Amino acid sequence: ILYRAIDSNAVDTGPLYNNRVGISIFFIIYIIIIAFFMMNIFVGFVIVTFQKQGEQEYKNCELDKNQRQCVQYALKARPLKCYIPKNPHQYRVWYFVTSCYFEYLMFFLIMLNTLCLGMQ
Question: Which residues form the Ion transport domain (predicted)?
Answer without folding.
Answer: 3-57
